[in-house]
Design brief:
By secondary structure, the protein is mostly helical. The chain has one domain (41-252): MetI-like (MetI-like fold, Orthogonal Bundle). Helices cover 85% and strands 0% of the residues. The two termini are 28 Å apart.
Length: 253
């Protein structure tokens, strides 16, 4: 029987153990804990940072920015994508704007927001959202273009209100594309948030990475980087993957 001797979760656990082993071997070969500390050294530093409360405080600050920017970008991107996908003339007008925004470097957007708005939370969150909105819009637009025309005909025959069309026809068809945009965008959002914090905030994981980079403290750079990666993996596993499975369920029902 295929997989009979492999308990659930054994393969990911073995893969993670191999990664830690490679890390430990690399640290042993380097022979310099200042250049590449091993897993045990980083674990000890993690406990120290957690005991002081700094790790939790900066993780929560970054998570708050991620949540705010993600919610803003997803809300605006869903509305724009649906409108562009359903209105060809509006899509033709807005497509050059979308192409420009998709290719505009994130660093440029961050710097301009800080210059024009100031070194504050509004500029930080807006810079991240502006970088994410075009991607959500493009993915959702393709989903709106693929709507089943028979359902549109049915809605017209039964004279459904725009609210009923949105709830019972548009959103169910759009859900898989929205879930895909959310999953792909979440990883992009938190990475851009770290850059935003690196450049212009006084707390958060990106700020701490910047601080310890200036001190050439590789161990603590790894502590904050790996801690936040771990948090985002938990969010991906517990929230994003179940949401995507649920969004795609109607297609196989």
């Amino acid at each position: 029987m295929k997989g009979a001797f492999w308990p659930r979760g054994a393969v990911p656990a073995a893969s993670l153990a191999l990664l830690v082993l490679i890390w430990a071997l690399g640290a042993a070969v380097a022979g310099d804990p200042q250049l590449l500390p091993g897993p045990l050294a980083v674990a000890r530093l993690t406990m120290i940072e957690a005991a002081t409360g700094d790790l939790a405080r900066h993780l929560l600050a970054t998570l708050a920015r991620v949540a705010a920017a993600f919610t803003l970008a997803l809300s605006i991107g869903l509305g724009l994508g649906l409108a562009l996908g359903r209105r060809p003339r509006l899509d033709a007008f807005a497509d050059p704007w979308l192409v420009v925004l998709l290719n505009l470097p994130a660093l440029v957007v961050i710097v301009l927001c800080y210059i024009w708005i100031g070194l504050n939370e509004v500029a930080a969150i807006l810079a991240v959202a502006i970088n994410k909105i075009p991607m959500v819009t493009a993915i959702v637009r393709e989903g709106a273009r693929a709507f089943d025309p028979a359902l549109d005909d049915m809605a017209q025959i039964y004279r459904l209100s725009w609210r009923a069309r949105l709830r019972h026809i548009a959103l169910p068809q759009l859900a898989p594309h929205a879930a895909a945009a959310a999953r792909s965008g979440l990883s992009l959002v938190w990475k851009i948030v770290l850059v935003v914090e690196f450049l212009g905030r006084s707390n958060g994981v990106g700020f701490m990475i910047h601080l310890h980079f200036q001190q050439f403290d590789v161990g603590r750079v790894l502590v904050y980087a790996l801690a936040f990666v771990g948090v985002m993996l938990v969010v991906e596993k517990l929230l994003m993957q179940p949401w995507e499975r649920r969004a795609r369920r109607w297609r196989t029902a």
